[in-house]
Amino acid sequence: MRIIDKVSLFYQTFKGEKSIIGNSLFGLPIYCITVRKSDFPIIVVQSGMHAREHITTLLSIRLAQDFYNFGRVGTVHFIPLINPDGVCICENFNRLYKANGRGVDLNVNFPARWGMGEFNKIISGDSDFIGEYPLSEKESSLLCEYTLKVKPNMTVSYHAKGEEIYWEFGQKGNMRKRDKSIANAVARETGYKVKLTPNSTGGYKDWCVQQLKIPALTIEVGADELEHPIGEEYLDSIYQKNKGVLNVLTNALTEKIWLKNL
Q1: Cα–Cα distance, 137 to 156 (Å, whole number)
Q2: Which of 81, 146, 187, 253 shows the greatest Cβ crowding within 10 Å of its Cβ?
Q3: pTM
Q4: CA 79 to chain centre
């Protein structure tokens, strides 16, 4: 079964709150699952942005069902497949494809030092093309619009691979201490390494940090030695490392754990 079909089936059978935030360039629906346990904190979890990393979509579905069943506090908006067109290209034509249907890498298409990344490209292709201008793509624009609509206190972007956590984008002072503390809490939960990426720009995480001034994590799942796209046989082991992440984050935001380090 195709990834888009698995997401569609989950959406159709999910008993809780759900919506379609818009459609991709090729007209495929972009689904959202919302789980409300309390009004605060609000978290957006997005995945499937890079086509060949669609293992994150399947992880997001499992985490959504988990939070629906066992979540304790907070509201989480899960967008499990923000790039359905790219995933279809990956599944049918090019297994290493990362971009969207127009050959734009969505994770360098956001207005956060757009076009200044080390590996940015100005020609469309499988990866790293920044687009003609920030938010030139339907998918990145829809994600921004939805994020502004729900006003999250934090966002999480699931990518693959390497088992690393990225959190930094020029924060200073207490904001920096806050975001680093939250990243470290997730690192303790998952066993992943916290890492700086000073030469990476234009990502959704970067935009959330720079424009919204909220904590934003990119979590890279799957061991680095695994090949793209990571097979579903590794989903359970990835899930086991990430199943507690949302409770860690909601607790961190509720209890303001970073204040202990100020």
Answers
A1: 20
A2: 81
A3: 0.96
A4: 8
